[in-house]
Amino acid sequence: MSCLSPAARAVLYDHATERPFTSPLNDEKRAGDFHCAGCGALLYSSATKYESGSGWPSFWAAEDGAVATTTDTSHGMVRTEVHCAACQGHLGHIFPDGPAPTGMRHCINGLALNFVPEDAA
What we know:
Number of helices: 1
Distance between the termini: 20 Å
Strand order of the largest sheet: 3-4-8-7-6-5
Strand content: 25-35%
Largest sheet: 6 strands, antiparallel
Structural class: mainly beta
Oligomer: single chain
Radius of gyration: 13 Å
Order of helices and strands: HEEEEEEEEE
């Protein structure tokens, strides 16, 4: 999307990370969908969002085919990076410490997402 803030652009295209507990989406509890801020693709449903305590919006699963992963070896760590399958924008990382049924935590930068409430449709 052409109206990205410089901070959102840095997250999506330069692999930056927003500071924890700064995204309003971390506290978003309404039913709805989370879309890529870069291209608008549907990524996550509020049905898979949960409070991880990590400081970033967290989900236990993405929509089918919506995200892809790569191995991230930056900062002296080995992590699984998650990005939008449609535009390749960096979203965050996936960790194996999430809740059932997947056991995975998609730790996502709120700046990489746009939330569309269910009642807005």
